[in-house]
Amino acid sequence: MKMKQKPLWLKWVLCAIPALIAVLMYFILPYFPRFTEYAFTRGIFRAIAFPVEWLMSVIPFSVTEAVVILCVPTLLTLLIIWIVRIIRRPHRRRTIERGCRFVAWCLSSALLIFMVMDGANFSRIPVGELLELPDGTYTAENLYTLTCDLAKKASVAREQLPEDKDGCVTLSVTQSELLKLADDCYGNLQEEYPFLITAVWRVKSVKLSHLWSYTGYTGVYCPWLGEASVNTDVPDCDLGHTAAHEVAHTMGFAKENECNFLAWLACSVGEQPDYVYSGHLQAYIYSANALYKADKDLWRKAYANCSEGMIRDLRQRSAYWDSFEGEVMESSQNFNDSFIKANGVESGVLSYNQMVELMLRYYDKQNML
After folding, report:
1. What's the predicted TM-score (pTM) here?
2. In the chain, where are the structural domains located?
């Protein structure tokens, strides 16, 4: 007995269901941050993402990088196979329709996976509320206090690290060893903030990191794979904070300013000197940039707290990124800006800088301003 086939319109509807669920999540979850926090991020997200993240950590290389490299030739091969089938098979219209439906289903499923593994987490309770940070209005003097303290702590932390022949900081351990310690940075925070957990135990190095620097990116969390990868061509002083930032994404934090803040906080209370220095240095850079815009005289006074070694590192990283400036970096940054804004963060790439507000609130809570 021949089975009755589903009508064509129903097949297309079934393809669209994952995308429909994703769209509903996108528009509805922002109105229910507590539900998103406890039912989704700490429930559904962890149940799905954590096993995937742990398994991906077992693989020693960046699968994200491999997928990106193989993506174009794979898609071209599939396209050629599809065209050949269209030419050779008698029912060309059916072959075309099936191919289009398969592509639609893949895109629809990819959208749902993104929402489950990352997109929905934009709607969770803000980090400031989770950490019970006070709301306040802060002055340039408060920002000066923060910047000075970060400069002093970065300078002290740097004294524990070796230098290269040019007097710039180098790692006290190998890159591979450093990237395996990224999740450990959060260990000292978990007693007070038990939600800061991840299943990732290895951040991946990207082999084509030098070329990646032309985009201006230092790290990436791939939601479709649950994998955190970093650019290891950057100056050593950037690596620790970047790795901790990507680990924050694997915990279910999607907003860049929150990941920047959590990375600094984790690095600052850690015991590994490379992470302590990198965290304070990156925090100083963001804070000093904000202070420069607010009061240039106070910025000059704060800058005087930087050690000579720290200043050499700052100059090294400025020279490094200046060498990659161009249309590729501008285009990639514009794309990232559009992506962040599309997920409800109106400030776009400027949101990275908003970690300064969170640091001021944290210092306020600790009575350090």
Report:
1. 0.91
2. 8-123, 129-365
